Amino acid sequence: MFEFVRKHTKIMMFVMFLLIIPAFVLVGVEGYQRSSDSGAAVAKVASYSITQAEWDAAHKNEVERLRASRPELDVKMMDSPEARYVTLERLVRDRVMNEAVGAALLPITDARLTRELQQIPAIASLKKPDGSFDKERYEQIAASQGLTTAGLEARIRQDLSLRQVESGLSGTAFAPKAVADMALNAFFERREVQLARFTPSEFAAKVQTTDADVQAYYEANSKLFQAPETADVQFLVFDLESVKKTISVPEADLRTYYDQNTARLQSTEERRASHILISASKDMPAAEREKAKAQAQEVLDKIKAKPDSFAQLAGKFSQDPGSAAKGGDLDFFARGAMVKPFEDSAFALKKGETSGLVESDFGYHIIRLTDIKTPAAPSFESMREKLEGELKTQQAQKKFAEQAEVFTNAVYEQADSLQAAADRLKLGIQSANGVFKKPAKGTPGPLANAKLLAALFSADALEKKHNTEAIETGPNQLVAARITKHYPARTRPLDEVKAEVKARLLQSRAQEMAKKEGEAKLSDWKKQADEGKLGAASVVSRDQSANMNQVLLDALLRADSASLPVWVGVDLGAQGYAVARVNKVLQRTPPPEAIAEQERGQVSRWIAGAEWDAYYELLKTRFKVQIKVAKPVAGVDAAVSADE
């Protein structure tokens, strides 16, 4: 099918034109948009379907959020199927809670919404100089999240409703002191034990095998000796870095950019001022404010009559205790350090000038500008590298957007090679050997992208060795790949894995012998303990495990202590077998009361968590949750090498 399309492009375009135009007339553009936007359903909650497009968008937003909050992290780890599945589970959970909110009919009043908004510092601080609410900045905050103010408020209402549902459980969960202490004492209970271990290594020398044994083990366990499906591949990465390599910035452009950004490049201008403050708070009665204003005017008149007396008058009349003793000096300050009326006046004055009366929330100021510190702009040469990098990035972003379609078309039109696209865009073809079908843990670069691998191992790419389509594997990054050699999954022949088969057989039989010996000793010692064969007594607990095997520790702490001593036999798999005798149960040493209170709080949180999990499972059943994507399992490692 793809071959026919490629060879008869013009015919197909004409046919599509004949089909699509009437369809637009009959169905309309919106119908097409609805159809294309719906996508395949990956999960369903009640009557609502979560689509593949919605999942992809949510995961992209999650990656961008992580990139912004933790720039030091490698966000490529978020490309794994496991990380994507976590995003899907979160989408399902959010939808389940939305349904629960709707079913519970929990409206949020305007008053409750207002209180919540006032508790958000970024919103509570949106005040103009006159004390009124700054609606324009509020709209900017909403827009920064891709929302209108109505959309932001709707989201906050939804969050509040969700909190009401959740707090109905978590807020009521508690553990009485007696119950919490009983649970904690049982959890941290200590036990005195003695152990005897039977390890496979002790029995390895006693194991005898024949070629027939090896053959039989190989045939019975052939799945253990399978080589997974892999491929040797070539791939082409088109991203901002590759575009930057093709860009050179002329000297004239650099100098123009430097001239245009001189103000940005230099540090902030600072000003030094002195002031005289006559205090008059904004909630003071009007008559008293007028009295303060009149006093300030008297001082200003004295300064006008005798300008050199400013410092002396500041020490005598200024009611700012921090600066009055210094002749009103406030030292250097930049924009944003003072209240706006004061700042506007100070930055409007020339050096040596004195302002008129300046009113602020603190009262009436008389300001004298005493100095201006204008830092010199850095030299062109010192900024050349930074400026060139900025210009290259700007031009690369524009060029990437322009050439993305060129890359996409090039890898499609010459489907049997990446060379044409590489030559056209001056890219280097990279190669990797032994690439697995599923993203391998630790695989670097775009070959860790599940979507790219799915396209790479598709029928078209496998059977015809065609290029994949251009796939977005990250922000401003497109990748196309092709298979150069394919290795189907196969069972490796016995001659190739004979040593591995024999080693596994030896381990298996030694493990069986260790277990058999341990079980025999357990039976004998239950009848009559052989003290000499048991190790020295030691005390174990969950907080003092001494790096003990978790399976063994759990068995020791779960053993019925109603009648002591009690014997326990534990199969440790590849580590052999353990026989243990629990001699005593020792009560936990009581912790300090402060720590005990913290632990009781933790028990309450455990109970709340368990109740919430149970409630969520109930909601999933009530709203008939279906996740139609299989939960991924960790992949196997791949050996990937890349060369230009």
Q: Care to describe what's here?
A:
The structure is a single chain. The chain has 644 residues and is an alpha+beta fold. Among the domains are: 1-35; 190-227 and 498-586, no CATH class; 230-247 and 392-488; 267-373, Chitinase A, domain 3 (Roll), CATH 3.10.50. Helix content is 51%, strand content 17%. The protein has 25 helices and 17 strands. The protein has a four-stranded antiparallel β-sheet, sandwiched between helices. Strand 15 and strand 16 form a beta hairpin. Mean pLDDT is 82; it is low at 1-38 and 635-644.
Instruction: Indicate the percent of residues in helices.
Output: 40-55%
How many strands? 17
- The side-by-side strand order for the widest beta sheet comes to 14-3-16-15
- Principal-axes geometry comes out as extended
Number of helices: 25
What is the average per-residue confidence, as pLDDT, rounded to a whole number? 82
Structural class: alpha+beta
Beta-strand content: 15-25%
Largest sheet: 4 strands, antiparallel
Q: N-to-C terminal Cα separation, in Å?
A: 33 Å
Low-confidence stretches: 1-38, 635-644
Alpha-carbon Rg, integer = 37 Å
